[in-house]
């Protein structure tokens, strides 16, 4: 089944959504709504930040070119002014419209997510990773969270005489964990084998955030930018003794055009693709001419495995059957009495086999009139 | 239990032989009947045969944890998968072929017939060559013979089909071979099983290289 099909925010994730919103609220996030439509110029200026450069557009009655938003973060960033020294914590539940798998046709994709925007520090980044982990724990299945820091890879790539194409190729090969592909590329381009060996070691590294700085120092300390190690030291100190399940995975390479620091992805057993994705995206903030930084994530609601429905759970508690001999005032009185006792009532002229009900109240001529 | 999508055909047979030698045999599969799924609870693997071009779909959508797919399919479809090993099987190359003595007229777009439009587009884009891509589903060699295209981009193994149709390899686009691919989510939830199988296959490949040296 196509996981994106026939899903809208209203239909797909009621109880989960309530739990997510409650969790966001506990961390000081407040709800934020953006318009379903945006001026197309917003996306035209930031096409390289979008997952796809294809945007659904239409012309408004006044001739203005509008778009069904393919991304929520851009809209929020534009709508929220920078306030020095302040962090604005916002959560949303919106649909985005962009081409999606498997056939590349436009789809409505419901997302729930958080954005922390403003003058951030390492605590905000750590908190968002914890919040992502807590969100995954709310899903009705086994989940896992992987993270990386794009500064690690940036440090290593800066040691190579790699052009833009080489960099893109290395990112692609790393994200698909293709050791043989990396080996071939390094051989072909004559790149420093010590950097390849470091990448190989990092592909095999799996550890918690609190363990990461020491492991990195022993594997690649002299090749990494000091500022990256310092940031990771801060984050590791915050993570010391916590129960966050995030594990380091160098192949987590959320779009480096968009993100610049800590990045992470969440997986759910039973979901083919990642169900959560996020990280720090100061690059996008700067690109929009703004001060400060930003960090956030989105939960892809359409991809979350649904909670197993209770087997045999009824659609209604009582099916009330009536016919042309049943006084409608009597029907109304019986229905109201049932609803007053908390029962869900479905009135029918004849038994509906497609409805699962606990009881039948037959008010038809000859019926017993008892639930 | 690891679900593994095997490509039907000669490549699939070779891959299964490698898996069996690596300790992941499945006796049920060696005595085929009309079943589509075969499992060995002792080694914790469940195999199923699928059309080679469908392997990545099964793995990308999580119906299979692992699969064996040609690099041509991976380059053409760009599925979001981990590419864990080059199995060194089904070795061939993606190549540009055309009539012997073909000379490219750069004053007009090059007409290219292929099944692999994305690979061809990327290849010529890197060369800044303007091309008119013609997507065909088979008998690609026919296109330059009948004047439908100037050249073709296709998989070349021995080159025999090309020669028999008066065509020659003009350029190599990239080498092709079978790859072990994995669903990223499966690699998180079945990390130990995936790693053990990958390591066993890697050891088997090394052994075979040494045996053939």
Keywords:
heterodimer, A: 371 residues, alpha/beta, three-stranded antiparallel sheet, 14 strands, elongated, disordered N terminus, B: 213 residues, six-stranded mixed sheet, five-stranded mixed sheet, 36% helix
| Widest beta sheet: strand line-up of chain A | 1-5-6-11-10-9-7-8
Largest sheet of chain A: 8 strands, mixed
How many whole angstroms does the radius of gyration of chain A measure? Answer: 26 Å
Radius of gyration of chain B: 20 Å
Q: What is the strand tally of chain A?
A: 14
Shape of chain A: elongated
Q: Which band does the percent of strand residues of chain B land in?
A: 25-35%
Structural class by secondary-structure content of chain B: alpha/beta
Biggest chain contact = A-B, 22 and 20 residues
**What's the overall geometry of chain B?**
elongated
Distance between the termini of chain A: 40 Å
How would you characterize the largest beta sheet of chain B?
6 strands, mixed
| Poorly predicted regions of chain A | 1-13
Report on the structure:
The complex is a heterodimer of chains A (371) and B (213). Chain A is of the alpha/beta class. Chain A has 13 helices and 14 strands. Chain A has an 8-stranded mixed sheet, with helices on both faces. A 3-stranded antiparallel sheet of chain A has the order 2-4-3. A 3-stranded parallel sheet of chain A has the order 13-12-14, with helices on one face. In chain A, strand 12, helix 13 and strand 13 form a beta-alpha-beta unit. The longest helix of chain A has 17 residues. Chain A is elongated. Chain A starts with 8 loop residues before the first helix and ends in a 9-residue tail after the last strand. Chain B is of the alpha/beta class and 213 residues long. In chain B, 36% of the residues lie in helices and 31% in strands. Chain B contains 9 helices and 11 strands. Chain B has a 6-stranded mixed sheet with strand order 2-3-1-4-11-5. The mean pLDDT of chain B is 93. The interface between A and B is medium-sized, with 22 and 20 residues.
